[in-house]
Fold this protein.
Amino acid sequence: MARMNMIEAIRDAMDTAMGVDKRVVVFGEDVGYYGGVFRCTQGLQKKYGKSRVFDTPINESGIIGVAIGMAAYGLRPVAEIQFADYVYPGYDQIVSEAARLRHRSAGDFSAPLVVRMPCGGGIHGGQTHSQSPEALFTHVAGLKTVIPSNPSDAKGMLIAAIEDDDPVIYFEPKRLYNGPFDGHHDQPLTSWRNHPLGEVPDGHHRVALGEAALRSEGDDITLLVYGTLVHVALAAVRELGIAADVLDLRSLIPLDLEAIVRSVKKTGRCVIAHEATLTSGFGAELSALVQEHCFWHLEAPIERVTGWDTPYPHAQEWYYFPGPERLKKAIRHVLDATPAKQS
Amino acid sequence: MDRRRIKPVEALSLHVPEPLVRPGDKPDFSHVDIPEPGKARRPPENCTAMDIRDLARGVVRVLDGNRAVGEWAQDTDLDTCVKGLRAMIKVRAYDERMLLAQRQGKTSFYMQCKGEEAIAVGQRLALQPGDMCFPTYRQQGLLIAQDYPLLEMICQIFSNSHDTLRGRQLPVLYSSKEYGFFSLSGNLGTQFVQAVGWAMASAIEGNDRIASGWIGEGSTAESDFHSALVFASVYKPPVILNVVNNQWAISSFQGVSGGESITFAERAHGYGIPSLRVDGNDFLAVYAVSRWAEQRARANLGPTLIEWLTYRVGPHSTSDDPSQYRPKEESEAWPLGHPIERLKNYLIAQGRWSEEQHEQTVAELQQEVLDATRKAETYGTLDDGPMPSATDMFEGVYKEMPDHLKRQRQKLGV
């Protein structure tokens, strides 16, 4: 075990994977000599050489396009998109090519690649450095989409993603890189050094993709969250003094539906929260699944707490961010809801 | 004082390219400058893009009537020519039979490569086993030149019970890793940059295999073309970048893709990639220049871009009607002739072929295609079945089927 922040854990995952498998190559804008703008690849080029860790032109369709060619050849490319907000020029390559290659060629070719992307706001990044476009990927057949919420999972899930035989979109909530940010932006950030999930197993640590993790347990209500919102949800529960299941989904596709259904059937109440915009967000899918599988166990309507359907603003960042106060209000509302009160 | 040397116009106007002729007009290729065969020099393989700037505006041509002339003439032996001719005849026979099958309703769609047979066939013969091509939908010659089983190709066209792609892909979008034929996407241009990535992987691994990327002149307008060239320029991987300029992108003449002001080969100059323009209907030129680029790649000298000058004789696909947008007689007027005829005449003049042999070969290969078609029909056709099962649709989306797909499959009841 070693104490790490999320950046160190992500770097450790690539280091571990590159050490055991020569097929693993890492590239993206500024990832080589400099080690990435968030330092996730620092030292890797020195250790593994320039042909396995290198800088690329500022061309996302090229980065993903060559990654697909490399993966089809038999390498295990890990491509970094500097910010998730920049992925769109490479979106066609992901959607039309990487996602469908196995199916359309009936297994003749496949694209086992990982696209790493820092996502989410709370860093005063404005509309081009703050987005959470996960739903654009969960909507695409053939992709796996995952979002870790802590250093231990970040390492284990990245190793699992690199070893996965299908293309994996790996989101890194950048507000969590240096600590478990809980949405209280006006308070000092606590460090991963003092957090149990900042303890990262050494060597080949793997967290299976498709398994949710219960971060707190209670009968009052179920909170379905991932990424930064895991910590916001935990803060809200603590501050309300309630007993709630906080389910960290970790992997959106494949989704641990069983864990969701088990929890909601137990509590009968559900709030879904994510940082991405509301309409057609992944919360809509979660909400539909909960009503489909748990309708007769529900005691109140499901509520969603999300970013608004606006571009991510700069100055108004904390009005946009679904922080603990908004989450608490929604939880309270769902807990108080009864058929009699609604009539 | 007005210091302008040129006066502003009263109102600006937009330039929208338009071909010289339209249906009903007399075909006119006067704008296509075709130099004499044999004039283009054969540069050393280690040349730079600037060293051979002129070759991107000229046209490498070898066949001069019945003779092979110039510095590129020595690269192609007669055995290779005979092999190429047979493969081209087979491609033609295959296309004719599949067009008929489409009209008979045995499949939904087909795309022929009439007039462009020499390009894919010639290049494939210049490559080695293990090299990977990233083709477009008009390179069936890459498979046929290697004697890929016709039966498998036809089963794919018919989407029948023996379709190796299990009914998932539109007809002609084949895939064969074994034969170095990358799964065809159906999107345009996307695979050009993947070829560069594949070649980069070969170089990263220290292998000796090379890649060959394919794109039409129309799709060079896609940003993926630029992505491919910039990555090829930066990392210098072993890749041949083929631009098949067949003059027409569905109904848009090559001017709409930017061909009015610059040749497609010249675009490589901005990236420092050596490039040549070649008579794509001249099998000897295709083979010689492909070999040259192949040797450059395998000597770690990096990418080569080749513009193949040719003409799309048929419609874009079975869903297209070119009489709506170009003169009917245009293909006859194309100044570079037909590749099969030209190679046949050359081989006859060399004493390696005869009219009788040609007729016999055509008949024999037509029969081979017919036999394969009949056999394929016993495995089903799109209109008549049996088709791949509905469960096939759910398989292979991921390596292991996730639970949500299992639930959806159960919902369909298959």
About this structure: The mean pLDDT of chain A is 97. Chain A touches chain B at residues 25, 51-52, 56-57, 59, 61-62, 65-70, 72-75, 89, 92-93, 96-97, 100-110, 141-142, 144, 165-166, 210, 253-255, 257 (CB under 8 Å). Chain A has 13 helices and 14 strands.
